[in-house]
Amino acid sequence: MSTLGWSRGAHGLRHSFAQERMAELQRGLHYDDALEVVSQELGHFRPGITREYLR
User: Fold this and answer.
1) CA distance 26 to 34
2) Is the distance from CB of 41 to CB of 52 less than 8 angstroms?
């Protein structure tokens, strides 16, 4: 973590991707459906883990 509380490196990129992709998908999908898509795109297929990236 940096001083500002942001993640750095590849893990930080995954957080950014998940958050931005969720916002994009929720324009047309319900939350649970968008969460499932992002989970699959992150490659772990576990929505519970994806929720951690969205915090």
Assistant:
1) 6
2) no
Residue 50 has pLDDT above 80, yes or no: yes
Give pLDDT tens digits for 3-36.
445 556 777 888 999 999 999 999 999 999 999 9
Are the CB atoms for 35 and 49 separated by under 8 Å?
Answer: no
Q: What is the pTM of this model?
A: 0.79
Label each residue of 1-55 as H, E or C: CCCCCCCCHHHHHHHHHHHHHHHHHCCCCCHHHHHHHHHHHHCCCCHHHHHHHCC
